[in-house]
Design brief:
The protein has two domains: 2-181 and 364-377, Rossmann fold, CATH 3.40.50; 192-342, Rossmann fold. Helix content is 44%, strand content 19%. It is built from 13 helices and 13 strands. The longest helix has 19 residues, at 218-236. By secondary structure, the chain is α/β, with parallel strands linked by helices. The radius of gyration is 20 Å and the shape is globular. α1 (15-32) packs across α2 and α1 crosses α7.
């Protein structure tokens, strides 16, 4: 049985990170059959709850091919060393390779794994924002130690090559692994024809590190989001549910911002999902609601695959951001012209209405999955 260690930003995981993990576990099962897995967390107490809530869904996504599922403290170097010595494969499991201190833990782990002649994989990651040159150097070192690197989109490939320059090595792109988690949910659950007559909003306080220039005013963007939600609620006459993608202070607990919006709206038909939900329960709400407003990247990924009746609020770069990249990957960009707005650009918002049940073309997700499988099967 293959022994796999997965590290990354677990310990501060969002619902999106939890979906990424489900997608990666599915891919690993299709590539290698049954396996044992040890999951590294920088704050294990938080990930303990994730595994308690989501392990059943993870096992279903992996076709019950997960043997033992352990949790370990990836900040403890002795524990991390022992896990690397134990494993056959070390995986950086999705999320952005970005400018934060934990990037050095990933760099250390990959260097250690290569010294021990372990296989090393970077699966489904994005690149940036890097913030400082020292993090760019760390990124280049990590990819340099990876046997296989599969970025989540071509935008990430280009950004890596720009940063690495003459030190670039061969990398490939596919799609964010959270897509496979959404597909697994669809295969496991019959989505009802009659939808809940509500708007589900997965919005966030604008993160200033994503500003495209120094003139961007975060308060103005937040106000624009508020006005879009108010306008959509009035026009539709539907109730509004704020659905968090993150329930932890590190990384920005969405409930703090959502409750501020709720009290500003001051309407009995507005609610915040303050009680944390499992990944599967979150996917159910996205799948069964009549329309979704997405701002966090993975809310857009998940609601587009599961629902399709979307409004997309792009807080990233209007041309080379991850949200635009994802919509283009799945052929949705043109279909969403009346349902999409770049928040950092002065654009009219009154036209916004949800796309009408966009569906990804048959076979496209399988093509993206095959990119992963073709690469992984070359290891053994």
């Amino acid at each position: 049985m293959v022994k796999i260690a997965i590290i990354g930003w677990y310990g501060t995981e969002t619902i999106g990170d939890r979906a990424i993990l489900a997608g990666i576990l599915s891919i690993l099962n299709k590539a290698y059959g049954a396996y044992d897995v040890k999951l590294g967390s920088i704050y294990p107490f938080f990930t303990e709850r994730t595994l308690l809530e989501d392990s059943g869904f993870y096992r279903k996504c992996a076709n019950n091919g997960i043997g033992e599922l352990y949790l370990f403290d990836s900040q403890n170097s002795e524990v991390l060393d022992a896990v690397i010595k134990w494993c056959d494969i070390l995986v950086m499991g999705g999320g952005p390779l970005m400018g934060m201190w934990s990037l050095y833990m990933i760099e250390y782990a990959f260097a250690k794994a290569k010294r021990l002649r372990k296989h090393t994989l970077v699966l489904g990651c994005g690149v940036g924002p890097m913030i400082a040159k020292r993090y760019e150097r760390s990124l280049v070192h990590i990819i340099g130690k990876a046997d296989i690197t599969i970025f989540r989109d071509e935008i990430s490939v280009r950004e890596y090559r720009r940063i690495a320059g003459k030190h670039s090595k061969e990398v490939i792109s596919s799609i964010d692994p959270a897509v496979f988690a959404a597909q697994q949910y669809r295969s496991l659950h019959a989505i009802p024809e009659g939808k809940e007559m509500n708007i589900v909003a997965c919005v966030r306080d604008f993160p200033m590190e994503y500003r495209i220039n120094d003139e961007i005013n975060g308060k103005e963007i937040n106000e624009k989001v508020f006005q879009i939600l108010m306008d959509r609620k009035v026009k539709s006459g539907k109730s509004l549910l704020f659905l968090p993608m993150h329930y932890f202070a590190i990384g920005g607990d969405d409930r703090r911002w959502m409750n501020k919006l709720k009290y500003r709206i001051d309407d009995g038909d507005v609610a915040v999902q303050n009680t944390p939900l499992s990944l599967e329960a979150t996917l159910q709400i996205l799948a069964e609601s009549s329309e979704c407003v997405g701002m966090r990247f993975h809310s857009i990924v998940l609601q587009t695959i599961l629902n399709g009746n979307n409004i997309v609020l792009n807080y990233t770069h209007p041309d080379k951001g991850k949200i635009v990249g994802f919509l283009k990957q799945i052929g949705a960009y043109e279909s969403y012209q009346e349902s999409f707005i770049n928040l950092q650009v002065d654009e009219e918002v009154s036209h916004l209405c949800p796309a009408t049940s966009f569906k990804v073309e048959d076979g496209l997700i399988s093509e993206f999955e095959n990119v992963y499988l073709t690469a992984l099967l070359k290891l053994f």
